[in-house]
Specification:
Structural class: alpha+beta
Distance between the termini: 34 Å
Radius of gyration: 17 Å
Number of strands: 7
Helix content: 25-40%
Order of helices and strands: EHEEEEHEHEHHH
Oligomer: single chain
Shape: globular
Length: about 190
């Protein structure tokens, strides 16, 4: 849906409210440069509700999930520099992501922006807390680990990009739609 939108061009509360009103099915990916490196957060939407969240600090190989990740995503929206991408997914793809990443699922779906705590200003306190003992959900965030986490190990080739992965998911979704369509016609 969107690629490379500057965080400076977004009003977080309005943006999320719009996604919720439109019953968005898909995910947003926020990529920012923290004090010591790249941080990336993902929020998964199902019928406009935020149902799952993930956040990673690549410098520290630290990953946070569910509510801890959601708080970091809300902080990232207030970052002075960063980009936001959003991608549509089919309901089937959303269920697949939620099943493969159960640890990221929120205890309670976020059904309204009023359920979120939006940061007034970007805080480095989350990143600074990593200087001590690092809470790791999983060691390493190398490309192979990320692809394995999302069940995409057949995509381990050196020239696989995010757009290639999305095209592959779209093709898979079309195949599923054709199979469902054929069954419905019988």
């Amino acid at each position: 849906m969107e690629k490379g939108t500057s965080l400076g061009d977004i009003r977080p509360k309005e943006y999320i409210a719009k996604m919720m009103e439109e019953k968005f099915n898909g995910y947003t990916c926020i990529t920012i440069r923290g004090r010591t490196g790249i941080e990336e957060g993902v929020m998964l939407f199902h019928n406009g509700n935020i149902v799952s969240s993930d956040y990673e600090y690549y410098k520290y190989n630290a990953r946070f999930v569910a509510e801890e990740a959601l708080a970091r995503n809300m902080n990232a929206f207030a970052a002075p520099k960063g980009v936001l991408d959003s991608f549509s997914l089919s309901p089937y793809q959303i269920q697949l992501v939620m099943t493969l990443n159960e640890d990221c699922n929120l205890k309670t779906d976020i059904i309204s922006p009023s359920m979120l705590q939006f940061a007034e200003a970007f805080s480095q306190s989350f990143e600074e807390s990593l200087a001590g003992p690092v809470k790791k959900e999983e060691k390493g965030v190398e490309r192979n680990v990320l692809l394995k986490r999302y069940g995409l190990t057949k995509m381990l080739g050196p020239n696989v990009t995010r757009s290639i992965l999305m095209e592959s998911a779209d093709e898979e979704n079309k195949k599923i739609d054709r199979m469902i369509g054929k069954k419905g016609k019988k």
